[in-house]
From TrEMBL:
GO terms for molecular function: ATP binding; ATP hydrolysis activity. It comes from Alkaliphilus metalliredigens (strain QYMF). Belongs to the ABC transporter superfamily. Keywords: ATP-binding, Nucleotide-binding. The lineage of its organism: Bacteria, Bacillati, Bacillota, Clostridia, Peptostreptococcales. InterPro entries: AAA+_ATPase (IPR003593), ABC_transporter-like_ATP-bd (IPR003439), ABC_transporter-like_CS (IPR017871), P-loop_NTPase (IPR027417). PANTHER family: ALPHA-D-RIBOSE 1-METHYLPHOSPHONATE 5-TRIPHOSPHATE SYNTHASE SUBUNIT PHNL, LIPOPROTEIN-RELEASING SYSTEM ATP-BINDING PROTEIN LOLD. This is ABC transporter related. Pfam families: ABC_tran. Residues 3-220 form the ABC transporter domain.
Length: 220
């Protein structure tokens, strides 16, 4: 099993109240599995995705990745894991506004110290696949929401990650772009994908659908 969450709980303090967002989550995900997470607004989907991606840490429980228990109190180790294994497509894209598409997409490779030539080659490859070459010289403010979404997807995919975590990545995409992105995910047998979505058609293309209801997984 690649990802194994055991009795994971998470709460936030809001205006003095303790809001329990995830309640004793037990979840195992095999390498190569494609999982959809569905549920009402506020049911905890993004929180769960962030915990899996180690962007956030649980209050309670164990996270075992590739048979190793994660030390959630060691941020540097978590950073390394995140950088080496995960590609994250966040809700709201999180692009650098004053940098062009090319720079935004190449950022994870710059962090890894790749050469200019390799970066150019990889950006060219992913932008051809996603049909976004015309966006490489544009800044995010001059792009549509769907175009920004595709830059964010390219940035997450460019490292060829082991796990892709996607938070409503298709809601701004046209039909053709949705099919390209889903094809990219489905065609890779090795890639583990966890996709938060409100779109049942997207969810049905995954191997398994998890329904979150008020912080509890109802079915898997
Ligand atoms: N940093 C935070 N501080 C306080 N409360 C938070 C924080 N992040 C999330 N929450 C609360 O946790 C609950 C779950 O939020 P989450 O974003 O995980 O839901 P979601 O299922 O992804 O919702 P949506 O479908 O609207 O994206 C919500 O009630 C939200 O207000």
């Amino acid at each position: 099993m690649l990802i194994n969450l055991k009795n994971i709980s998470k709460s936030y303090i809001h205006k003095g109240d303790n809001i329990q967002v995830l309640k004793n989550i037990n979840l195992g995900i095999e390498k190569g599995e494609k999982i959809a997470i569905m549920g009402n607004n506020g049911s905890g989907k993004t929180t769960l995705l962030n915990l899996i991606g180690t962007i956030d840490t649980p209050d309670k429980g164990e996270y075992i990745f590739n048979d190793k228990k994660l030390s959630i109190d060691q941020p540097l180790k978590l950073n390394k894991l995140r950088r080496n294994h995960f590609g994250y497509i966040p809700q709201g894209f999180c692009l650098i506004r004053d940098k062009k598409g090319f720079y935004n997409i190449s950022l994870p490779l710059l962090f890894r110290g790749y050469t200019k030539e390799v970066i150019e080659e990889k950006v060219d490859e992913i932008s051809s696949t996603l049909k976004i070459k015309h966006l490489l010289n544009k800044k995010p403010d001059n792009m549509s929401a769907g175009e920004r979404q595709k830059i964010s997807i390219a940035r997450a995919m460019i490292t060829n990650p082991e796990v892709i975590l996607a938070d409503e990545m298709t809601n701004t995409l046209d039909k053709e772009s949705k099919n390209i992105v889903l094809g990219l995910i489905k065609d890779s047998r090795e890639l583990t994908a966890i996709v938060v979505t409100h779109d049942i058609l997207i969810a049905k293309k995954c191997d398994r659908i998890l329904y979150l209801d008020d912080g509890i997984i109802q079915s898997s």
